[in-house]
Amino acid sequence: MILTNAQQALLDGAQGETMAKVVKTLVMYGEAFGAERMAPVTSQYGHTVISFGIGVMKPVYELYDTLLQAGAVSKQPFSADPRPLDKNVPSSFLQDLVFKVMYSQQERYEAQLAKLGLMGKDAFTCACYLPEAGNVPKRGDILSWAESSAVVYANSVLGARCNRNSGIIELMGSMAGFVPEFGLLTDEGRRADWIVEVKTSALPDAQLLGSAVGMKVLEKVPYVRGLDKWLGGELNEHACAYLKDFGAACASNGSVGLYHIENLTPEAREQGADLIRPDAPVYLVDDQELARVRAGYPCIWKDLNAKPKLCFMGCPHMTLQQLKDWTVKLEDALAAAGNSRVVIPTVFTSAPAVIRAFQQTEYAPRLEKTGVILSYICPLMYMNNPLSKKMPVITSSNKLRTYSSARYYSDAEILRKITKLSLIHISEPTRP
After folding, report:
1. pTM exceeding 0.85
2. What does residue 167 show for φ and ψ, rounded to 5 degrees?
3. What's the structural domain count of the chain?
4. Residues in the chain with pLDDT values less than 50
């Protein structure tokens, strides 16, 4: 690998043995993927996926202590994935005991993150790119990020450039100020390997479509045609929320780090079909294909007919507009069902900054009246509890379904289940 004089000096120990090891790690990482040089990190902020102080991560805590002792900290303030616990989320006494053991190092770990460069005490969200969260990279920025749903959003919707890094590689890139140049950091690596033709009768569920695409293209780059029919050609709040959920499912059900949406996402608007490789195969997604994918989802509940005991919405974290829209949907559905509150304990998760913004709106007391709990938690970290795995939990998140025992239902199905509404026609919510 060709290094600049400054990079070589770091590798040679100009800033000590610890920083030399950091750079050596980045060099080895890059060489494994054929990188010929390093690219400077240009974004204002970083993001790390590791946000939970689980007991078995002792080597990580020891590594971070070593870095801190050597004065090796991030050159960028960074955000982190959501916290694993929130006392407001329903749990039993035994679950709480297990949580206490599982995340026994949470306080220690958060103290380490603060010293390493955490943006702030509430900088914990998987959707750090939301405007309220304050970590919004610019078009063309080179990032050193981890968290698959954040990376795919930054690459695809914002037009930044980032590979799917691990949490530790992300931190080392932020410390050094550069990352290996390969894959999605290059023009060639951002070309589309697949064409996805969406020919459904209505706008497909974002999480289901993302799941289908991810399982088909795996780690490749898809170029999606047909979504602009419903989403339009502007990256407004509605479109961005849809793409957030679509991308998270692509990234978790496959390993997608970048997608292009024809006439909508930045590179697709500028380059169009020129992004597509000449030999790109076509994947047709129609109603039948989505039904086939959905039918293939396993349910690992002990009792397949069990009554759900908990519902999680927001993996990745919900946007401010999604919280508003769901408030209206819930009110209408509950009124139609003759209920005042949700009939299944339901948790909406979002970034702390988004929750604060939402609490300043007229929608907040209205959502509270429905019985829904608003939390900053990571649902996956909750579901990692062995006792939580035994619970019949439902969700509209394909990411949570993939990584846990939670059972997937579409947004419309979730709405019916948590309000006990037998039949409903879902349309765009009205605004008061």
Report:
1. yes
2. -60, -40
3. 3
4. 424-432
